[in-house]
Amino acid sequence: MVMKSRFKIESDSNSWVHIFEELEGYSPNYSFKIARWLSPPINCLKCNTNGTSKGSPGPSSAAFNIRGHLGDLVIAKGFKIQDTMNLVVEARAIKEGLLFCKDKSIEHVIIESESMAMVQIFEGKWDTPWSVALEVNKINELRGCLSARVHHSFKEGNTLADYFANLVFHASDLQLNQYHDIPNKGKAILNMEKIGTPQIRRSITNC
Predict the structure, then answer these.
(1) How many angstroms separate the Cα of 117 from the Cα of each of 6, 20, 73, 124, 145?
(2) Residues 144-173: tens digit of each pLDDT
């Protein structure tokens, strides 16, 4: 279970005594959501993607994993990228996942990314930043060749892709084709996601 929260309080006082008094009377309102990995339809695969950049721009890595209706692993790939920004590595992860699907003639796939910015771009709600224009153009080209939808996923429903992206960041490029190839920590994450283990997202609504 993952529970994170942040809050911000504005005060007109410069006195620490008064500020502490205000804090003592502060009672935030929390909202809760259940987040988990959901399996795709029977005749469809799901590709979860994630990218990480330490510094943005800075050393970066990206990864994707593809699973079927029962949650079993089809492929997991992770790779390092030259110093770049978060949005670029998120786009690279999506592009590489779609390239694999095209190469393997996988026509029906759901792409899940925890990058809301990328999802908004593909839904036409945000303009494409110049930094990812080439990647977005290639992704749209690949989507035209496949029956591929791009959806948003909360971080808690994308934990395996996040694990692989961070794993390759601290090691070397990887490609895993079978369950027994996955490190034990990754196996535990996959098994938890396969059975739909829920995680709770907590946020403060009255900041």
Answers:
(1) 21, 38, 27, 11, 23
(2) 999 999 999 999 999 999 999 999 998 889
Q: How far is CA 23 from CA 26, 127, 205, in A?
A: 5, 41, 17
SS3 state at 190:
helix
- The answer, as to whether pTM is greater than 0.85, is no
CA distance 143 to 145: 5
In whole angstroms, what is the distance from residue 185 CA to residue 165 CA?
A: 14
Backbone angles phi, psi at 52, to 5 degrees: -135, 140
59: which 2 tokens? Answer: 């050393």
Reduced to 3 states, what is the DSSP secondary structure of residue 176?
strand
Q: Are 72 and 2 in contact (CB under 8 A)?
A: no
